[in-house]
């Protein structure tokens, strides 16, 4: 039987965006995908299209010109989505903190789920982050699929108006 | 029927990780006009160097201009300061610095070769080259403590020494890599499907290379003999067996050949350094504050890197100017794209090995 839930659980795809980094973390992400570390054995695939992605890997401090694209990419990824900030620049701004063209970390603009420290983050750290992100993704997916209650259950008190009283009175009228 | 189309490539494009934006004006499938936009990763490093950090912290700041050639940036800056402070360094420090800069060149060239293969549609070759690159990263980690962005060089010396075990392990890794590179040279020359994408594609002639001031492997693939390593004498390149690599066809194939042969040359130089490392201290005392101005040129993996530093006997410098290789090469890039098929654009672009975080700083 076709189960959409099963597919989403097993293979979340990655989108990688360079928001102004020094290429250090980017080549470490590339090294993660290469045979020595091989991130793809956890079922994740690096894709270029935000519409197909589930996990968003961002490197670098956000520069003035890349922030618009960062938000565009984030909004184009369908729910549920997980954001990983790779490297100390993406977490806090790192050595570029409070330079004139830099926005000090991506969590000023988009919510971040996993922070990865290090300059540059080593492949082991990035892999740990992605495995955590896969867990968070599964959790978010379950939350999204459970039924949502839009109203609060009214508390029953004697002599006061509530939903069950109305239902009871309606029932009496019918009889 | 002729039809003009405008096609953008980057920023955030599947074929391109680097944050650069090209706009191709195409007539049917041929590219006629190119315009580029490089400012996406401008962070303001030059301004920060003269307002936020003192001169002895800047080697670690300018290393973050670029992750691939970090060591070249910090070395070029350190040499300007040492020239102003009139420090004479011993042979061991110079040899260790040369060793790291050549190891950096090997891994940078291999990454570029892998990228060219991926963008030409040869995924298996990409994975293979990336796997063979890992031992070099391990060697860098053994020597300096970090895979990339190793802050190995400081003013007056280097931060770590080499032990005999590392020396032995390094020689083993380099000997194994040499075999692999010889196989790759054979593969790149004789593989039929690679030759379709590489031979005669993206040609930069010698005249164009001279008039558009191409540098680095791009110029050497067209037959233009420019290499800072052969021109200046700050590092002991003449003692450890440096040879210039030249190709004459100027296409993607020639650029790959230049990179592969340069890797072989770098391996030979690293082996010479490991075998004949002189004795001595790894850190020398430096006194005073930089006064005056100084200019240093170094050969980064992508070409000539130039640093101009001006100080006036204060902890804060007056001016730091960085001129990076990719920035000088952009006019030549734009010329190569004209009259090529749009489908080849990603592979040609990867064969330049552009580094946009250097360019925008």
Structural overview:
The complex is a heterodimer of chains A (175) and B (361). Chain A is of the alpha/beta class. Chain A has one domain (4-148): 3-Layer(aba) Sandwich (Rossmann fold), CATH 3.40.50. Chain A has 6 helices and 5 strands; from the N terminus they run αβαββαβαβαα. A 5-stranded parallel β-sheet of chain A has the order 2-1-3-4-5. In chain A, helix 2 (24-33) crosses helix 5. Chain A is elongated and about 75 Å long. Chain A starts with a helix and ends with a helix. In chain A, 39% of the residues are buried. The mean pLDDT of chain A is 80. Chain B is α+β, with helices and mostly antiparallel strands. Chain B has a single domain, classed as Cytochrome-c3 Hydrogenase, chain B. In chain B, 50% of the residues lie in helices and 14% in strands. Chain B contains 14 helices and 8 strands. Chain B has helices spanning 45-51, 58-62, 70-85, 91-119, 123-144, 164-190, 192-198, 206-211, 216-221, 228-231, 252-275, 325-337, 345-352, 356-360, and strands spanning 4-9, 21-27, 30-37, 153-154, 157-158, 291-300, 303-312, 319-323. In chain B, a hairpin with a 2-residue loop joins strand 2 and strand 3. In chain B, helix 4 (91-119) packs antiparallel against helix 5. Chain B is globular and about 70 Å long. The model of chain B has no long low-confidence stretch (mean pLDDT 85). The interface between A and B is large, with 40 and 39 residues.
């Amino acid at each position: 039987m076709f189960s959409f839930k099963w597919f989403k659980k097993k293979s979340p795809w990655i989108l990688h965006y360079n928001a102004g980094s020094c290429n250090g973390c980017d080549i470490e992400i590339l090294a993660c995908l290469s045979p020595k570390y091989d991130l793809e054995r956890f079922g994740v695939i690096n894709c270029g299209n935000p519409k197909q992605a589930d996990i968003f890997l961002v490197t670098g401090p956000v520069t003035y010109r890349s922030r618009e694209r960062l938000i565009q990419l984030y909004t184009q990824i369908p729910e549920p989505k997980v954001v990983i900030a790779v490297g100390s620049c993406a977490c806090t701004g790192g050595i570029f903190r409070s330079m004139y063209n830099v926005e000090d970390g991506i969590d000023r603009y988009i919510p971040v789920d996993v922070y990865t420290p290090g300059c540059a983050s080593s492949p082991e750290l990035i892999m740990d982050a992605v495995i955590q992100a896969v867990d968070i993704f599964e959790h978010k997916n379950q939350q999204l699929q459970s039924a949502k209650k839009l109203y609060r259950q009214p508390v029953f008190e004697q002599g006061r108006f509530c939903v069950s009283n109305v239902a009871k009175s309606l029932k009496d009228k019918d009889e | 029927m002729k039809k003009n189309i405008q096609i953008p490539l980057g920023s955030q494009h599947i074929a391109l990780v680097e944050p650069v934006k090209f706009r191709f004006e195409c007539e049917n499938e041929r590219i006629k006009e190119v315009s580029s936009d490089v400012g996406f990763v401008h962070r303001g490093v030059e301004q920060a160097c003269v307002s936020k950090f003192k001169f002895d912290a800047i080697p670690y700041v300018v290393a973050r201009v670029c992750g691939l050639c970090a060591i070249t940036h910090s070395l070029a800056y350190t040499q300007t300061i040492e020239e102003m402070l009139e420090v004479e360094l011993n042979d061991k420090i110079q040899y260790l610095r040369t060793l790291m800069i050549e190891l950096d060149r090997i891994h940078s060239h291999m990454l570029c070769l892998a990228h060219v293969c991926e963008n030409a549609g040869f995924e298996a070759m990409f994975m293979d080259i990336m796997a063979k690159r890992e031992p070099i990263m391990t060697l860098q980690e053994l020597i300096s403590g970090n895979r990339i962005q190793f802050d190995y060089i400081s003013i007056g010396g280097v931060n770590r020494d080499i032990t005999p075990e590392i020396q032995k392990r390094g020689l083993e890794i380099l000997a194994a890599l040499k075999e692999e590179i010889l196989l790759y040279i054979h593969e790149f020359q004789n593989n039929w499907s690679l030759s379709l994408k590489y031979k005669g594609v993206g040609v930069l002639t010698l005249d164009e290379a001279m008039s558009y001031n191409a540098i680095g492997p791009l110029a050497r693939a067209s037959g233009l003999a420019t290499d800072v390593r052969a021109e200046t004498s700050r590092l002991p390149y003449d003692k450890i067996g440096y040879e210039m690599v030249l190709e004459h066809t100027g296409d993607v194939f020639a650029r790959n050949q230049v990179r592969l042969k340069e890797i072989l040359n770098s391996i030979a130089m690293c082996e010479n350094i490991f075998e004949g490392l002189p004795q001595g201290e790894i850190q020398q005392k430096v006194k005073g504050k930089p006064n005056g101005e100084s200019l240093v040129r170094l050969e980064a993996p992508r070409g000539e890197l130039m640093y101009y530093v001006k100080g006036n006997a204060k902890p804060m410098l007056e001016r730091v100017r960085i001129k990076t290789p990719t920035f000088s090469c952009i006019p030549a890039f734009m010329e190569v794209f004209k009259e090529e098929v749009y489908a080849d654009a990603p592979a040609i672009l990867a064969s330049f090995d552009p580094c946009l975080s250097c360019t925008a700083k």
